[in-house]
Amino acid sequence: MSFSAVYIYLKRGHKIKLPEWGGYWCWDSEKKTIIIHTRKGEELDIRQTTDVDYTISFICRNDWELAD
What we know:
3-stranded antiparallel β-sheet
């Protein structure tokens, strides 16, 4: 799915990921942001990403899937 499609699921409480990921992204409704859960168990607010180009390259992909 495109990110625009999974974003709707994300906002409804579903976890999303890309096929090769061990982690996932989810929506934090209190903070009103995406939380990145890494395969190493780290949590990071998407607004704290240090490599914006890297993060946007994921968003532009069309093979997103639900991680539930």
